[in-house]
Amino acid sequence: MAKPILDILAFRTRLAAIFSILAVALILYRLFDLQVAEPVVEPEVSEQRLTREMPWVPRRGLILDRNHRQLVRNDDRVTLKVELHRIQDRVAIAQALAPILERDSSLGFQEILKEIPKEAKDFKPGTYGEKNLVRHLSPSAVEALKDLQIPNLEKQEARFVQEAKGEIWRYRLSVPGLVLTGFPDRTYLKRQLAGQVLGFVDGENRGQCGIEMAENKQLIAKPIRIQARRYGDSRSILESDYTRGVPMRGADVVLTLDETIQWYAERALFDQCRELQAKTGIAIVMEPFKGDIYAMANYPPFEASKKGLYGTLQQNEHHSKNHAITDLFEPGSTLKPFIVAAGLDSGVITEESTFNLENGVRYIPGRSKPIKDVHPVKGMANVSEILVHSSNIGVGKIAEVIIGPRPTMPDRKILYDYLRGFGFGGRTGIILPGETPMYFRPANPADWKYTEIMTLAFGTGPIMVSPIGLAQAYCCLANGGIRKQPRIVDGYIGNRDGKFYSDPVASGERVVSQEVADSVRHMLRDVVESENSQAKSEWYDVGGKTGTALKWKVDHYSKDHRLLSFAGVAPIDEPKLVAVVMIDEPTGVKYGNQAAAPVFRRIVEDTLAYLHVRPDRVPEQTPTPALTLPVEEEEPMMARAEPEDPVLPPHQEESTAIPPAPTASEGRGLLSLLDRVAQRLGDEDESPDGRLDR
User: Mind listing the pLDDT tens digit for each residue in 444-492?
Assistant: First the structure.
């Protein structure tokens, strides 16, 4: 009888122990559920334990033209990765991806297998157990990969923050080991328009050249820390109000460039360079009184959105190189107006001064070959006629008067100081990175030989200039004799208050008097009004000077390799712009008047008409022009209703295909669903209004 009682007690003891264990387990589970899975929000201590600060890097600011038209857009670069510690079946992964990646990235089943390491030791150090399969998925591939996504993805998962370097979001696919990650990327909305000026960003979203590099500190916002809630499965989920008080991107940079004028310059330059099979080409359009750069065109073009298509790093750097600020060349005859200005301002000559041009041939001491004029003039010529005929002998004699028959150091320094005053021999100070300083050879005027001074007068020998430096110098003649620093940035739009902050305009430095600048500028009109000038406009009074320079090859000047240029001002009486065109090694032409002057005329007429500048005259037989829009279509010119409006020359209206204004969520990069990623990446539509809503 005692034994059954003991058995019953043992059974009850075991049963009580089991229930006690279950009760404790239930209590522990509930505690876990309350404190981790469903944390209590009210207690302050618990809140501190379950929330954490996480790093947040806002998107880059936008780049806008002078009219606040958007030139770049923030996008997401989608990368497909494999996670080693989650791989269960390499073959299954390859089978799932092959149909998609074979179309998108030419990766078939066998290629994918080769890309997926078999064991951990096959991973290179520093990869953290991950490997990129495709660095840049196309929108169609992202759309196809949606079918591999985990079913019933929670909305919270879209705000899942990864602390991996550079990532802005991450999705795990239903196939174990496959991950889609989003990285910040930039889309350049006008493709190749001003590609070398805008620059591009690298894989870590840092500016590498152009404005992207020069204004990198303004475009990026300082990394901050935001609140996120940590859940039991180690996920960190952003709070619903995580954007409150947080800048979504860096400051927006507003350029002095005008998208429409830039398009005019590129179209005229590209057409000419392609026709003449030129090596490179440059066109710069500047406003002379503030130094604002309206356009800076480079040929061949560079499309930053497709920087990976240019081959090697060296090839990529060659295409993205901004020749307008990096290349140096002998200015040739484009320098002659500044020798004349130096002579007039120093008082050694007047407009009525005459010189014997010696029938186009002059021998000077210390030089075996004579100085020759391409267009010989018999007898005497005044200063204006010297420029009209582009006489090397004439400007050489003007330089000779400045320095004297037996030049001493002070006399030489007079000429040197004037040229330095116009900006030659140094940098212009433009904000763009990579500007090459102009220079004299030798740098010290005390070392200049007499023969070098004579050749310097017509732009060869001891002087090298850049296109932007030449444009800056011609602005001195257009604005009354003041050297202005070129401006490419007009200001900034704050990322917190949305206000525009203008970049101050430098006061400049006077080089020559107003009277001298005006006098030389009107002489340049006489140059263009000559019979053979291809820069002459039927609509506007313009002035300028051609330049033809032979390129130095090993040990001699090559007549087969030329740099042809034209620099000028328009209109002459009330200048609105300065334009410089340079074409390198064109085929079939020998002079700047043939290659560069027509480009100048085309750019000037288009730009002045776009700016609604009243023409100086109207051709007797005015054609019925058609407006060539900077988009795919052409529309006829609309007749003006007001008869008092001036008749404008044929020109190209402002593009109606302007990038869309950014949405309120622009810059977050944290997308709620993967199909929104595909939709955004594939969206190439452009709205008719490119102005930012602020």
Answer: 877 888 888 888 998 888 899 999 999 999 999 999 999 999 999 999 9
Nearest alpha-carbon partner for 299 in 467, 64, 549, 485:
467
C-alpha triplet 578, 583, 586: angle, nearest 5°: 155
Q: For the chain, how many structural domains are there in total?
A: 1
From the number of C-beta atoms within 10 Å of its C-beta (0-12, 13-18, 19+), residue 544 rates as buried
| Residue 116 within a domain | yes
Residue by residue, DSSP assigns 166-178 as T-SEEEEBSSTTE
Separation CA 595–CA 246 (nearest Å): 53
Q: Are 460 and 547 in contact (CB under 8 A)?
A: no
Does residue 83 fall inside a structural domain?
yes
Residue 137 resides in a domain? yes
Determine the Cα angle at 465 with ends 607 and 285, to 5°. Answer: 10
pLDDT digits (tens, 9 = 90+) for 282-327: 999 999 999 999 999 999 998 877 654 444 445 556 678 899 999 9
Pairing of strands 439-440, 463-464: antiparallel
Answer for the pair 637, 627: CB distance below 8 angstroms, yes or no: yes
Contact 131, 80 (CB under 8 A): no
Give a yes or no: residue 507 inside a domain. Answer: no
Counting residues of the chain whose pLDDT is more than 70, the rounded percentage is 70
Domain of residue 219: give its range. Answer: 56-255+662-679
Q: Is the peptide bond before 407 cis (omega within 30 degrees of 0)?
A: no
Helices (H) and strands (E) in the chain, counts: 21, 26
Alpha carbons 402 and 416: distance in angstroms, whole number: 10
Tokens of 424: 């030659």
- With H, G, I as helix, E, B as strand and everything else as coil, classify residue 9: helix
User: What would the pLDDT profile of 145-177 be if each residue is shown by its tens digit?
Assistant: 766 654 433 333 333 344 334 566 666 676 777
Q: What is the CATH number of the domain that holds 184?
A: 3.90.1310.10
- Contact 332/549 with Cβ under 8 angstroms? yes
Q: How is residue 454 written in tokens? A: 């004579």
